[in-house]
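To whoever is on call:

I kicked off a structure prediction for a single chain this morning and the downstream step that reads the tokens threw a length-mismatch warning. I double-checked the sequence; it's 255 residues and nothing unusual in it as far as I can see. Pasting both halves so you can look.
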Amino acid sequence: MSDRGYQPDFYALSEPVRDPARRQQKAEKIRWVLTNFAPFELANATCLDVGCSSGMMTAALAPLFRHTYGLDFDALALASIQPEHHAGVTYLRGDAMRMPLPDASVDVVICAQVYEHVPDDSRLFPEIFRVLTPGGIVFFSGPNWLFPIEPHYFLPFLHWLPSRQAGTYLKLTGMGDSYYERSRTIWGLRQLLGEFEIVDVVRPLLQTEYLIRSPELRGQLLAMPQPLWQAIVPLLPNFNWILRKPGDHLQRRQR
């Protein structure tokens, strides 16, 4: 268990999180995945966006659901929200490792590029499991520790270094004073997610432009034989998964 706190000033220091175009692009990818893989009607579902920051993605996705919650620990990010632009969303300041929501209270959880920013991800995923209804789903994305280019600073091998040496690397490159993020391998994540059913949606996403713009490269990847594709999956830069909590979702029981 980690005793470190949340990353200070993350919203203020992270330009991509404040970029409306990038947030909209990510929201479109998540919308595509949810509308194609959700096993129940999203219009009747309640959604929780964990690590919602300023709510740009949360608000973009909110029309899909009956109601949406956005949760973040960063007070500055939440203070930037203009309520009139966020109909159907309730924002909560809280700890992702101890969420202020009842058991089995949401049908869909969005956990997009968040796990590496939480003080202890081994406490994050049990909380997601707790608040999710039986048969509920999670859109999960996050960086892969095995990919050699660190995705926040775009420096090679940064995340492979011990914390002190990583901080020195950032200082030498003029990009910061300390390194906070902690990512995992596919095997480490699968171990944490042991109770969830996991569906990898990267290959279906390659039919779109959300991951790779080049149609030639997408075509080459889609043409790969399945055994070769499975061999490279553990080395991809990011994970994009649908996680499902075992059980029969209420909407499916009512059909």
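Update from on-call: the warning came from a stale cache, not from the record. Cleared it. Sanity check on the structure: The longest strand covers residues 132-143.
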